């Protein structure tokens, strides 16, 4: 049982093989990003995840086009497809046929395919933008806390501790419930989405902040930072030209892995009724309706559930691949 | 050790104060900024001005937020009288106030809901700790084998599945179609068998999600620990493999697992919101969601404070346990 020892050995020999096995090629310098890209390209599972992510983004962007080609308008009622007595879709499998690819919604007969496609827009937009909010705030405050230390560090660290010990889901639902229906020129679902983005991002930044602060603490003592300082570089130069480039890798990894978490958060909030409201469709909202209809129409539960699952899984696979590719200790 | 405890307890108290202040602010400051009237929110738009005025007096809405804060905190320890609209009600300590929806005291509701949540969380925690840690350790020791790859695939799927989807699926299959388990919660004192049967699915669903996370975490940590010098030393001095793994490697592996466990348990005690909503369990999380829907501020404050206390205390216990598990950690 000396697996790890063998593994390091295997990795070393493999590395030697690579350099020894290709004598014809000229030795060329490769930037860390180039190495990461080469590694990522070899990771087939991560690539598959990346392709699915790309497809999902395309679906979200071209939702109106896709729906006009393959579905019905997302808010068009098709009561002729609903069993008037039970409120369930007519036909097997929740009413799936060539006309309604994913079947119809119970009671009002809206096209599930169109609603899932439009749901991707809400899900990805909220997940992506809230990750951006969290990364920007977390990076700025983390770098500042780590670099300047002293009371600034104490304040930022305590704020992060408090935020992390908050019952986040409760707070977000509470916040959403007191928000007015129109704000800053937005109205209805626009407000809800803006609020979701801000609060999910706000509660996400301490996770980024802690990592960035820790990295900054160790980086600022490195020789190259000291060298820059002794050459007379200003604070801004050291922060942005010396420290930040070295923080990009961990931040990238964290950001890619944060998006699936945010997809789950958005769906959870919509499930609890704190997300976007009908007529705007979202996956969590469909599942919350399925709580009352799953016994008579299981397909209406399975399809939005699978949509969330596929999205989160694809982002997770891609994110894991990015992490392995950017890991300087990685042997692949 | 003693000084450390005192300092930590002081920090706990400050943090709880911040939590109360923030919750109060969400419900008083934000509606004020956005121009909505809290008293009307509580009684509804159709209420007559006299009852709005009564609520306003009872809630002390015209007082500055710090005064409201002080009244709330002193009520926790000394009890408090509510006067307004011509009536006075006494609320004994620990006073979390009255629900403004059904005039019930908050504290008895909290203690009434707690057993449901505790049953759910403790049962699931046992399952996920046993399952998750064991899977993670075995996967780390058998790295790269078929077992490892399939276990990690299942775990990745597990963290990508939202709990309200797996919950509904298992309800549909095991409760509705197969009829193996109850779909309702029964009190333990009433009928232990029914209690067990009713909690079976919530336990398994909740434990599956967390076991997946813990398996990933345990595997990653174990692999890192196995590469450490002291493990090589332990092997070199001739210790048998079970001792190296069970005694030396496991200790370091459990440190991060314990950190996460403390946070998760604390968060779940107040926030098993999604599980409780899916399985219709009347626990604390469910109470909070209903209260938020009804804008029942005292109830929300009660659950939030309760939850935050649980999170913070769980973190404190974990920090104290570190010293027991990891001999390198000294509390000072």
UniProtKB/TrEMBL annotation, chain A:
The chain crosses the membrane at residues 45-67, 124-148, 160-179, 191-212, 299-318. Pfam families: BPD_transp_1, OppC_N. It is a multi-pass membrane protein. The keyword Transmembrane applies. It comes from the Bacteria. Keywords: Cell membrane, Membrane, Transmembrane, Transmembrane helix, Transport. It is found in: Cell membrane. Gene3D superfamilies: MetI-like. GO terms for biological process: transmembrane transport. Signal peptide: none annotated. Residues 120-319 form the ABC transmembrane type-1 domain. SUPFAM superfamilies: MetI-like. InterPro entries: BP-dependent_transpt_permease (IPR050366), MetI-like (IPR000515), MetI-like_sf (IPR035906), OppC_N (IPR025966). GO terms for cellular component: plasma membrane. Belongs to the binding-protein-dependent transport system permease family. This is Peptide ABC transporter permease. The lineage of its organism: Bacteria, Bacillati, Actinomycetota, Actinomycetes, Kitasatosporales.
From TrEMBL, chain B:
GO terms for molecular function: dipeptide transmembrane transporter activity. The keyword Metal-binding does not apply. It is a multi-pass membrane protein. Keywords: Cell membrane, Membrane, Transmembrane, Transmembrane helix, Transport. Residues 114-322 form the ABC transmembrane type-1 domain. Belongs to the binding-protein-dependent transport system permease family. This is ABC transporter permease. It comes from Streptomyces mashuensis.
């Amino acid at each position: 049982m000396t697996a790890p020892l063998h593994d390091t050995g295997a990795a070393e020999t493999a590395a030697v093989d690579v350099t020894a096995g290709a004598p014809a090629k000229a030795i060329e310098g490769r930037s860390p990003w180039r190495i990461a890209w080469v590694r990522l390209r070899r990771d087939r599972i991560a690539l598959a995840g990346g392709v699915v992510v790309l497809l999902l983004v395309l679906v979200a962007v071209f939702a109106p086009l896709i729906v006009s080609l393959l579905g019905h308008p997302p808010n068009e009622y098709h009561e002729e497809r609903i069993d008037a007595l039970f409120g369930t879709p007519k036909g097997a499998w929740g009413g799936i046929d060539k006309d309604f690819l994913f079947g119809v919604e119970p009671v009002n007969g809206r096209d599930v395919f169109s609603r899932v496609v439009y749901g991707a827009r809400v899900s990805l937009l909220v997940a992506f933008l809230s990750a951006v909010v969290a990364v920007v705030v977390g990076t700025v405050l983390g770098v500042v806390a780590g670099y300047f230390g002293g009371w600034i560090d104490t304040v930022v660290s305590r704020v992060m501790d408090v935020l992390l010990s908050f019952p986040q889901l409760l707070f977000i639902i509470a916040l959403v419930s007191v928000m007015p229906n129109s704000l800053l020129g937005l109205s209805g679902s626009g407000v809800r989405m803006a609020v979701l983005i801000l609060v999910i991002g706000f509660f996400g930044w301490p996770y980024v902040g802690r990592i960035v602060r820790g990295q900054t603490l160790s980086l600022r003592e490195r020789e190259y930072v000291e060298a820059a300082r002794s050459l007379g570089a200003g604070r801004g130069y050291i922060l942005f030209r010396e420290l930040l480039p070295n923080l990009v890798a961990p931040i990238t990894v964290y950001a890619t892995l944060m998006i699936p978490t945010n997809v789950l958060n958005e769906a959870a909030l919509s499930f609890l009724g704190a997300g976007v409201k009908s007529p705007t469709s979202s996956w969590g909202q469909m599942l919350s309706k399925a709580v009352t209809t799953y016994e008579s129409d299981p397909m209406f539960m399975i399809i939005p559930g699978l949509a969330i699952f596929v999205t989160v899984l694809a982002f997770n696979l891609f994110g894991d691949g990015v992490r392995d590719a950017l890991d300087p200790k990685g042997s692949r | 050790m003693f000084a450390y405890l005192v300092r930590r307890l002081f920090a706990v108290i400050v943090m709880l104060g911040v939590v109360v202040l923030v919750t109060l602010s969400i419900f008083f400051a934000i509606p004020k900024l956005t121009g909505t009237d809290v008293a009307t929110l509580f009684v509804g738009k159709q209420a007559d001005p006299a009852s709005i005025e009564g609520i306003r007096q009872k809630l002390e809405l015209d007082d500055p937020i710090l005064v409201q804060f002080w009244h709330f905190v002193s009520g926790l320890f000394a009890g408090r009288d509510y006067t307004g609209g011509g009536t006075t009600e006494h609320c004994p300590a620990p006073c979390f106030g009255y629900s403004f929806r059904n005039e019930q005291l908050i504290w008895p509701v909290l203690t009434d809901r707690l057993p449901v949540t505790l049953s759910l969380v403790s049962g699931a925690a046992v399952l996920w700790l046993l399952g998750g840690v064991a899977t993670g350790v075995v996967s780390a020791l058998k790295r790269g084998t078929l077992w490892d790859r399939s276990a990690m695939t299942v775990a990745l799927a597990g963290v990508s599945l939202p709990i309200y989807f797996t919950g509904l699926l298992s309800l549909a299959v095991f409760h509705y179609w197969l009829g193996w388990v109850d779909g309702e919660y029964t009190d333990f004192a009433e009928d232990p068998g029914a209690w067990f049967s009713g909690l079976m699915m919530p336990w398994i669903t909740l434990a599956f999600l967390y076991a997946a996370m813990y398996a990933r975490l345990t595997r990653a940590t174990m692999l890192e620990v196995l590469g450490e010098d002291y493990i090589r030393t332990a092997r070199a001095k001739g210790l048998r493999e079970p001792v190296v793994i069970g005694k030396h490697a496991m200790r370091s592996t459990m440190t991060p697992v314990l950190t996460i466990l403390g946070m998760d348990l604390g968060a779940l005690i107040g926030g098993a919101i999604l599980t409780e909503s899916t399985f219709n369990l009347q626990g604390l999380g469910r109470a909070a969601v209903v209260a938020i829907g009804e804008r029942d501020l005292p109830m929300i404050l009660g659950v939030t404070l309760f939850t935050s206390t649980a999170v913070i205390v769980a973190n404190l216990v974990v920090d104290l346990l570190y010293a027991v598990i990891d001999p390198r950690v000294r509390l000072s």
